[in-house]
TrEMBL record:
Belongs to the 4HPPD family. It comes from Cryptosporangium aurantiacum. Fe cation binds at H185, H268, E349. This is 4-hydroxyphenylpyruvate dioxygenase. The lineage of its organism: Bacteria, Bacillati, Actinomycetota, Actinomycetes, Cryptosporangiales. Signal peptide: none annotated.
Amino acid sequence: MTLEQQLVGLVEYDASADPFPVSGWDALVWVVGNALQTTHFLQTAFGMELVAYSGPETGNRDHHAYVLRSGAARFVVKGAYDPWSPLADHHRTHGDGILDIALTVPDVDRCITHARAQGATVLEEPHDVSDEHGTVRIATLATYGDTRHTLVDRSRYSGPYLPGYVARGSAVVPPAKRLFQAVDHVVGNVELGAMDEWVGFYNRVMGFTNMAEFIGDDIATDYSALMSKVVANGNHRVKFPLNEPAPGKKKSQIDEYLEFYRGPGAQHVALATNDILTTVDAMRAAGVEFLATPDSYYEDPQLRARIGQVRAPVEELQRRGILVDRDEDGYLLQIFTKPTGDRPTVFFELIERHGSLGFGKGNFKALFEAIEREQERRGNF
Ligand SMILES: [Fe+2]
């Protein structure tokens, strides 16, 4: 197994038979209220490296945009400069969040032809953008809510991001060891009853296949519940769990998201690390807040028996609140941050896979109970 296979659970597949071949993540494009300061946070707390910039100095009178990298992961952070920018509207409605889950594809036109035939909404037709570094072919599809998928073929381009961007570094000293190496999955929250519709969209339009299914009791606590299904591209580099609220005694965490994001959107981004203990320590020292896990989680004899032998002593995981899950293929370690913006919406997960291709199904209940304690403190439960 290669390092990347282990890190994000890659599988072999035949792209020639795929009507919509996707190679991987191109970028997660964020819209925030203050791009400069979010960029600072992502450098100092997430150890990302600033690599490119677009703004008034480069002729962009609409917004500031900062491009950050950590290994294979690329984030683009945008903040409106012009009050009439569409990005300002997006931020007023949704708060800080993910506008675009951009994907790298070898053939933009082929994907769009297939997507259109399957009834997808094409927001931007395939077109070339060029500068002195070459040409990028690009097109954009609509997905749930105001979220989009820009399809990018950058095989003929050598610039720092896209035409219109200039290379840019910063004085922030990166951590000695990279805190994460790749994006593992991005979760979408959709309205009650819409999950299967979006699973169908990814199946039909983008050729994604269903990976796993968590329904009903699996992820219901006494008070709050959700349903979740997971779709993935051919090589499994791109994985999209999709959640919808399920009826519970109190408001589901998905309902809280939908209320505060004002509609469907990206709920969390899971970042793949090969050393979750060091990453959690570094992020916590920089002020990142993680969801607390009750001591009972680690002391429960049933859970101890279920997780078996993992690479770190359970006491080390407990000290940091790291969760463990095991399935027939192996195990994974994971932890979730609190929401990182002003609204109780988008947050991050850190995930260290050891063979498991799952998403922490066994931890859902333990996790959701922890989330609900936070929801209760905010008075939204
Ligand atoms: Fe996740």
